[in-house]
Design brief:
With 271 residues, the chain is α/β, with parallel strands linked by helices.
């Protein structure tokens, strides 16, 4: 079988460079394009060199239409505006679109969903195996415990992260809400400050910390009468997200159009 030809979106960023390294180390996958924002000082640079590898002859470009002419998929960990701009082109070209971008709005998600009748999209707030196993466990624990156990989600990331709570925190919150049979947007408590009053029963709380170079720490706390259950995951290197995204792309290659998640990729839907 021919190698899966992949475009790395945001190829000049930290995550883009990690994706380039992951593809280089994975049999059956090859970098065929490197996308960067218009006006970036990195345009024209070699994607391999930027990733700390030997030159691979793939120059960073802002022209996704041209890059996608001979590609099979795109790995997209960028920013909401860039991802939404990529959605239509990826769908038109028939690319597998793996989306790890966080901070997307409800309207952004609606745009993504609108193409999935004709395109293959794998979207997740976190691409790592460990976090998605954690989400499955959170859902199961939430199913097993009643509202006597309050659910709080704590996350910490490096000081340069621009969105909060993290996409992973929302992924875990959604898992808890599904376990409880409730809608997260109606039972979400965020940004507590000042005279807030007592905690509302049934809410799922979020707290965000930022500092240093933390790749990503997440804990889900089930706080009941006189006892707590805590489920945690700590990411030590963003390569775990890169390898997860690459696994998602190769799994999705040849799948029928639809919107998939990492739970689909990892066979965790029934947990």
């Amino acid at each position: 079988m021919a190698d899966m030809r992949l475009i790395v979106a945001g190829a000049g960023g930290r995550m883009g460079r990690a994706l380039t390294r992951a593809i280089d180390a994975t049999p059956g996958a090859v970098v065929t394009g490197a996308l960067e924002a218009p006006g970036s000082e990195l345009l024209g640079k070699d994607a391999g060199v930027l990733a700390g590898l030997p030159a691979n002859g793939i120059k960073l470009s802002a022209d996704l239409w041209t890059l996608s002419k001979d590609a099979d998929g795109i790995l997209d960990f960028t920013v909401p505006g860039a991802t939404i701009a990529n959605v239509a082109i990826a769908a038109e070209r028939g690319l597998v679109h793996v989306i790890g971008t966080t901070g997307l709005s409800a309207s952004d998600d609606a745009v993504i969903k609108s193409v999935t009748s004709r395109a293959v999209v794998v979207q997740s707030g976190n691409m790592s195996l460990g976090v998605n196993l954690l989400a499955a466990l959170v859902k199961r624990v939430a199913q097993s415990l009643d509202e006597g156990f309050d659910i709080e989600i704590l996350e910490m990331h490096h000081k340069a992260k621009i969105d909060a709570p993290s996409g992973t925190a929302f992924l875990l919150g959604e898992a808890a809400a599904r376990g409880r049979g409730i809608a997260l947007d109606q039972h979400s408590a965020r940004g507590r400050d000042g005279e807030t009053g007592a905690r509302r029963a049934g809410d799922i709380g979020f707290a965000s910390l930022r500092g240093g170079t933390v790749t990503g720490d997440h804990s889900v706390i089930f706080a009941g009468p006189y006892e707590r259950i805590e489920l945690s995951h700590r990411a030590e290197d963003r390569m775990i997200f890169a390898h997860g995204a690459l696994k998602a792309a190769m799994w999705a290659h040849g799948k029928k159009p639809g919107l998939y998640s990492m739970a689909d990729v990892l066979g965790l839907k029934d947990l």
